[in-house]
Amino acid sequence: MSYYFSKTLDCGFDEAITRATEALKTEGFGVLTEIDVAATLKKKIGADFRPYRILGACNPKLAFEALTLEDKIGTMLPCNVVVQDAGGGKTEVAAIDPVASMAAVDNPRLKEAAEEVRGKLKAAIARL
């Protein structure tokens, strides 16, 4: 089982972030966190890295449902979406597969909730 799904776009990095944020919003997600990995690596260890951003996406209704089913599930939230420069004017957007990430939790109701989140994240990626 793959732990993510992705799509490569024919656009620049900043446009891909905007498109990903809007596609997530259409599916009921907001971006709670945004981590600029390249800037962090440069600052912390002096390493150069391609443009790479991690968007922490959250659908409040579905997050609330998951938290009521498993009080420690916050250790796996929010859903990460990666936007990275793929070279040649292309940018890849990849999202975590919540069904794969939640497979370690033995709770059938949580699996159902994760499947709903998976559908929404896949729809957001397809919309790109």
Plain-language structure description:
This protein is an alpha+beta fold and 128 residues long. Helix content is 45%, strand content 28%. The chain is built from five helices and five strands, in the order E-H-E-H-E-H-E-E-H-H. A hairpin with a 2-residue loop joins strand 4 and strand 5 (90-96). Helix 1 (13-26) packs across helix 5 (108-127) and helix 3 (60-69) packs antiparallel against helix 5 (108-127). The radius of gyration is 15 Å and the shape is globular. The relative contact order is 0.25.
Descriptive tags:
globular; 128 residues; alpha+beta; five-stranded antiparallel β-sheet
The helix content is 40-55%
> What is the oligomer described by this structure?
single chain
Shape: globular
Sheet having the most strands = 5 strands, antiparallel
Strand order of the largest sheet: 1-5-4-3-2
Radius of gyration: 15 Å
Percent of residues in beta strands? 25-35%
Terminal CA distance reads: 23 Å
Number of helices: 5
Task: Give a brief description.
By secondary structure, the chain is of the alpha+beta class.
How does the SSE layout of this entry go?
Elements: E1 4-9, H1 13-26, E2 30-36, H2 37-45, E3 52-58, H3 60-69, E4 79-87, E5 90-96, H4 98-101, H5 108-127
Antiparallel strand pairs: 1-5, 2-3, 3-4, 4-5
Helix pairs in contact: 1-5, 3-5
